[in-house]
Amino acid sequence: MFKRPVKHKFSAQRTELDGIKFDSKLESRHYTNLKRLQRSGELLFFLRQVPIHLPGKTKYVCDFVEFWADGRVEFTDCKGMETETFKLKKRQVEELYPINLNIVKKA
Question: What number does CATH give the domain 17-104?
Answer without folding.
Answer: 3.40.1350.10
